[in-house]
Amino acid sequence: MKDNNLGDIKLKTMTKLITMFMLLTLTISAAGLDSKPAPEVNDSSKLNLQAEFSLFYEFYKNKDYLSAYNHGWNVINTDPSAFMRFKPFRKMEDVLWFMHDSVATFSDEEKQIIADTTLYLYDKALEYNEEKAAYFLSKKAYVLETWINADPEVVIEAYRTALASDNGISSGYKDRLGLILSKNSSEDNDYKMQALELYSALSEAEPDNALWIQRIEALAEDPNELVEITGKAWRLDPENPEKAWKYASMALRNQDYSTALEPLKFLIEKSPEVINYHKQIARAYEKLDETDAAIQSYKTLIELEPDNRDNFFNLAIIYQKLGQLSVARSYLQKASKVSPDWDYPIFIEAQLYEAAARNCGFEYEDKLVYLLAVQTYQRVVSMGGQYASAAKERINALANSIPQKEDYFFRKVAPGTVIKIEGKCYDWINKSVVIPD
Predict the structure, then answer these.
(1) What span, in angstroms and rounded, lies between the C-alpha atoms of 387 and 385?
(2) Which helix (H) or strand (E) holds 13?
(3) Does 406 fall in a domain?
(4) Beta strands 432-434 and 418-420, pairing class
(5) Could you give the dihedral angle defined by the CA atoms of residues 256, 258, 259 and 261, in that order, rounded to the nearest 10 degrees?
(6) Count of CB atoms situated within 10 Å of the CB of 352
(7) Could you list the residue range(s) of the whole structural domain that residue 30 is in?
(8) pTM of the entire structure?
(9) In this predicted model, what pLDDT tens digit does every residue of 239-292 receive, in sequence order?
């Protein structure tokens, strides 16, 4: 019995569908190819719009989309302004998308009718929903692309129009535009550059989304080509900071630090207050071993953001590499002052003492410097931070480098004695150690 009922329901549903599409087809045929593909409304003077909308709303709510269809159009084609708070265009959109996607028995010709009608709906919606233009324009572009299979130029222009209305539209639609641009790029257009700019912007807006980097990398088999493309775009418009930044970003991503310097210098000259430009050029100078320039860049950053511990720390590391241990320590201490709970600067300070002793000798005075290193590592351990475990390892590694009991015995040094670090290699240290028990 259930099967017979189910068969009756299916038959009635298909009868409704066929009837409705016959009406749709007749409407479009009668109107001509250039007419708007939507059902003609009855004489508006005889329509009770409140009743029509009530019927539309009830049928829609009960998911009887086919019954809702004509009532919805009667409202939309007459005057939907009184019902806008109920979102009639979004509801009619649901009806049309259901018809297009949910019923597999429709012919291609019938689906084309639905697609044309949906485009008309979006155009009509734009007349009443200016504040929602981005939504309807992006959906219109999607229908042109996926339902109509329109010419790529038409689809590209549709997505561009949507973006122009509001750049905050879903990144998914931006991705579709990028893919179409990429697919249709050639030597006769700059679509590849446009796609690159689009995905660069997406990558900046969503730095944790790896898809945008993948899209960028897929635009050219050779990453150097992307650098060249962005460089060419900037040189054609040399006063454009956005193009300069894209060029610099692409070069940095490709680890082409020397190429990145030119656009970064331009950007700093144009906008010396932008911290990120100084950070990127400091990093580039470091990678290129242009030490003096890197130091100056970090000092500029300290002036711009004196409460940023990283700038002090990065300077300390540069001076450490130069062997200027005293200067390195001073910047480590400044980093610690900005961030007292950060254990890394203290860990590196201990390494400075190790390096000083290692480079000087292995006499008693040198062993005392190793002891200073150990006691500094012990401070790191007591903080219980990220480098506590590494500090313990260094303490164990230096166990035989610090003074042993016999060193203290022969010099009659008692536990708890405070000894100042001295020696020709250590005049910069100006610290003391406490002899352990």
Answers:
(1) 6
(2) helix 2-31
(3) yes
(4) antiparallel
(5) 120
(6) 22
(7) 17-128
(8) 0.64
(9) 999 999 989 998 999 999 999 999 999 999 999 999 999 999 999 999 999 999
